[in-house]
Amino acid sequence: MRHTPRNVTQKLIASHLVSGDMTPGAAIGLNIDQTLTQDATGTMVMLELEAMALDRVKTEVSAQYVDHNLIQEDNKNPDDHRFLQTSAERLGVWFSRPGNGVSHPTHQQRFGKPGKTLLGSDSHTPAAGSLGMLAIGAGGIDVAMAMAGEPFHTRMPEVWGVRLEGSLPDWVSAKDVILEMLRRHGVSGGVGCIIEYYGPGLEHLSAMDRHVIANMGAELGATTSVFPSDAAVKAFLDAEGRGEDWHELLPDDGCSYDRHETIDLSQLEPLIATPSSPGNVVPVREVAGEPLSQAYVGSSANPGYRDFAIVAAMLKERTIDDNVSLEINPTSRSILETLTRDGHLLNLLGAGARLHQAGCNGCIGMGQAPANDTNSLRTVPRNFPGRSGTREDRVFLCSPETAAASALKGVITDPRTLGMAYPQVREPNDPIINTRTLIAPMEASKARKVHLIKGPNIESLPDFEPLETQLDLPILVKAGDDVSTDEIMPAGGEVLPYRSNIPRIAEFSFRGVVDGYAERARETGDHIVIGGENYGQGSSREHAAIAPRYLGMRVVIAKSFARIHHQNLVNFGVLPLTFSDGDDYDALEVDTRIGFDKLQEALEAGGPVTAQADGRTLTLEHALTPRQVEILFSGGLIAWMRNQKAA
């Protein structure tokens, strides 16, 4: 019997589908093979698993990384790291110690496996799609559920096929490919889609090049990005000593895609995203000559050996400009060791670069904040306002080649104008492999004896009451378009150390949107937030839902939502609704009261919801599944899970 030809995405989903069907928009459940958590989100995951009373994870592989909160200016971060390590021991989870590296490239090196599913409490988890995996970012509680053996529930995306042709010119690299996608489509162009790359141009992109592209698919709002598992993936796994984990996974001849796109790699040029959105992409030549004070190389968006080696080759026997600080952020211990062995580190240090520990560091605002009122060029995935740690920052996103060229010249520079030959750098086939500080899961019998170490900053997860069927609440915040979770709940060294303390971190809620929210929320009590298009884009951190919920946020009404934040709101009992008529958004103001009647009945019916606001009738839509409606009226996902077990 002949089967309909399938693309790689359809093969991955079909092999893990436990409920629903593969019709775009349909509710589906997926079996999850692997999970990834990091320390900025993993503390909540571990607290959620504690609330579920889970004894041991049910996945094939679960790994906990410490890569975000590495600054130890007091006890809070190291206390959380001890809690995470003992939790990992107790639950049978791999533990990657501080300094081992960023979760995404480290996971790709040690655990990535074609054909598997990966759910991560980090929005850049889709980077693993570079190996032919179905890798999706989600809120921590969804990852906790997967670790407990539950399926991941979402809606079947459309599959957007992007055919790559040709090969990249000199001075153009993988970062420019994903910047070209952002130039064409903006930060919400991929919502509701999985982007699958195929075509002859793949022959010229290594597995780590593909990581760069898949990583920043998150900035398009895509559910994930997928590449085939081919010779490039085999070469990567062979080099990492894991050749037995490779198998071929290619699209069938004659398969189809819901959307189509072609990129001729040979026609690309160096690109740059200007402040303060990954979607503000222009050719580097258009902003060349602007001064800068900082250039930054590293992060999960440019994590490979060649991303550092190309910079080292450009800087060999040269010196960076006197007014530029060049920050080098290695992405894994193994890559740092290999760069050292091959002499690249000496070139970087000799040119005046500053070397930092392997981790996320300045990408998440943990150190390396730029000077005020200056330009910073970074190879990181995001330049949302204030994410760098400087409130009024001016961050540009670019390739390592552009960052290095600009550091040499002291102004933003198109690397094609340097007047030097393009260095030929390749990934080594014999990288140093260091797994000595990657701690394997403990035997179950020993794990049961582990005592969780909780520092004084760690608070148990608060309980939230169920959504009520009748509400009359004021609007407390009116936000605009493309508001990110970094603006709802800031990152950085001041805020993230409180990630395991909801009452304390709640004080920072909406700091990037409006002043004084926490104080007003305490005075007002239960309230509503309204927003524009693509509300909640960016990071998967569920604190952007939990903390405002703790302060009384019960409903969010927006023109549209980013996928992960929409699900995080539901998971913690906050009702997400969208405007049927955009004029209603314009008419509503802060302090306007909105009333709902028979809300549960309306949501269960599946149709529009009506509400009253100052004598005006609002028609509001929702995209909730019956399961999500149950979760809302249970008080959130953990309470719903308890109810299911009790039943």
UniProtKB/TrEMBL annotation:
Entry's EC annotation: 4.2.1.3
Source superkingdom: Bacteria
GO molecular function: aconitate hydratase activity
Keywords: Iron, Iron-sulfur, Lyase, Metal-binding
Aconitase/3-isopropylmalate dehydratase large subunit alpha/beta/alpha domain residues: 11-288, 289-410
Pfam families on file: Aconitase, Aconitase_C
Aconitase A/isopropylmalate dehydratase small subunit swivel domain location: 514-581
Coiled coil ranges: none
SUPFAM superfamilies attached to this UniProt entry: Aconitase iron-sulfur domain, LeuD/IlvD-like
Record has Cell inner membrane as a keyword: no
NCBIfam families per UniProt: acon_putative, PRK07229.1
Protein name from the UniProt record: Aconitate hydratase
